[in-house]
Amino acid sequence: xxxxxxxxxxxxxxxxxxxxxxxxxxxxxxxxxxxxxxxxxxxxxxxxxxxxxxxxxxxxxxxxxxxxxxxxxxxxxxx
Length: 79
Hints:
Elements: H1 2-29, H2 34-76
Helix pairs in contact: 1-2
C-alpha cells in the first residue's frame, strides 16, 4: 500500500479542493449548475483514478518482488 498511500498524499488534496470549489459554486449560485456538475465529476474521477493507479502500482510491485524471489530460488535451489 506504499504507492497508494503516496498517491493519495500527493494528489488527493488537489481533487478534494476541486470538490470544495464545486460545493462553494453550488452554494453561491443557490442551485446545481453545469459548472458544479463538471467540477464534481472531475473531483470524483480524479480521486477514483488516483486510488486505482495506486492499487495497480502496489500490485505490480508485489508481483515483481514475488517473481524476483522465485527466480532467485530457482537459481540457488533453496527456498
